[in-house]
């Protein structure tokens, strides 16, 4: 995944952050950190690097200065389709080594892990 995302100058964890915004409409750093199971200090550094790459904009809420909102830039909006295509290809490649029965078993175990 890392090598395939390199062409877009994003890391797998940055992809995770972007997915939270693209697909789940999450705009709060704490919410994203919790979803990705990251420490608040870790997400802060990730967001800073993403902001430096012009992937996101961090804005302080006018009504509550404690709240930071994350928004996409035009650059990251344009990356959604090509990045998701590459990730889909990677997932397809990974799954190709399994039989149909093994795929179903793997998916079953992954669903179980998600519920923990």
Detailed description of the structure:
The model has no long low-confidence stretch (mean pLDDT 93). A hairpin with a 7-residue loop joins β1 and β2 (68-72). The chain has helices at 2-5, 12-22, 29-36, 40-52, 74-95, 100-114; strands at 56-60, 68-72. The protein is built from 6 helices and 2 strands, in the order ααααββαα. It is mainly α and 116 residues long. It has a two-stranded antiparallel sheet. The two termini are 25 Å apart.
Lay out the secondary structure.
Blueprint: H1 2-5, H2 12-22, H3 29-36, H4 40-52, E1 56-60, E2 68-72, H5 74-95, H6 100-114
Antiparallel strand pairs: 1-2
GO molecular function: DNA binding
Organism: Peptoniphilus stercorisuis
Keywords: DNA-binding, Transcription, Transcription regulation
Record field, number of beta strands: 2
| Cα Rg | 16 Å
At the fold tier of CATH, the topology name is: Arc Repressor Mutant, subunit A
**Strand content of the residues, in percent?**
5-15%
Give, in spatial order, the strands making up the sheet with the most strands: 1-2
Model regions low in confidence, pLDDT < 50 over at least 5 residues? none
Distance between the termini: 25 Å
Q: How would a textbook summarize the main sheet?
A: 2 strands, antiparallel
Q: What is the CATH top level name?
A: Mainly Alpha
Choose one word for the global shape. Answer: globular
Query: What is the H/E string?
Result: HHHHEEHH
Task: Please bin the fraction of helical residues.
Answer: 55-70%
Number of helices: 6
| Average pLDDT | 93
* Total count of domains: 1
CATH superfamily: Winged helix-like DNA-binding domain superfamily/Winged helix DNA-binding domain
Identify the CATH architecture: Orthogonal Bundle
Strand-pairing-aware structural class: mainly alpha
């Amino acid at each position: 995944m890392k090598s395939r995302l390199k062409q877009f100058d994003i890391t797998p964890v940055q992809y995770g952050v972007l997915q939270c915004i693209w697909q789940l409409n999450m705009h709060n750093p704490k919410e994203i950190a919790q979803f990705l199971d990251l420490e608040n200090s870790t997400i802060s550094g990730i967001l800073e690097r993403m902001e430096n790459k012009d992937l996101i904009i961090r804005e302080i809420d006018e009504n509550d200065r404690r709240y930071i909102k994350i928004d996409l830039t035009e650059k990251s909006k344009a990356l959604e389709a090509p990045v998701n295509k590459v990730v889909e290809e990677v997932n397809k490649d990974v799954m190709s080594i399994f039989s149909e029965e093994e795929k179903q078993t793997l998916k079953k175990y992954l669903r179980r892990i998600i519920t923990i």
